[in-house]
Amino acid sequence: MAAVNGNTILMKIGTDTIGSQKGVSFESSAEMLDISDKTDADAVFIPGKRTDTVSLSSFYVVADTAQAAMRTAYEANTPVTLFWAESGGTNLKTNTTSYISSLSVSAPEHGPAETEVSLQVSGGWSAAP
Hints:
eight-stranded antiparallel sheet; mainly beta; elongated; 129 residues
């Protein structure tokens, strides 16, 4: 299995590439639809809609243009484009309508400030052009 590191995901807001993240995490989930009936005591499920969430972390830099662009995209509900290079860069996926669902900044007393942005993928992933 190939390693995944922070270099495997890129975000674009308009024509600006947002890079230099410290880490990335992906969460994929499917709604489970209960199709049980009263003939059996065990519940029976089938998968429903799938969702993907991507979280990126980076060091917080005051007056950073990339972080300002993310804040602006969040406040304006502007979609952003994500590029994900799976398997060591050989399987490039993209999504052009992801939305920033949350932004946070943490500033510990003895350490660098960090920021995290979470994105909700809308419409799933497709092969990059």
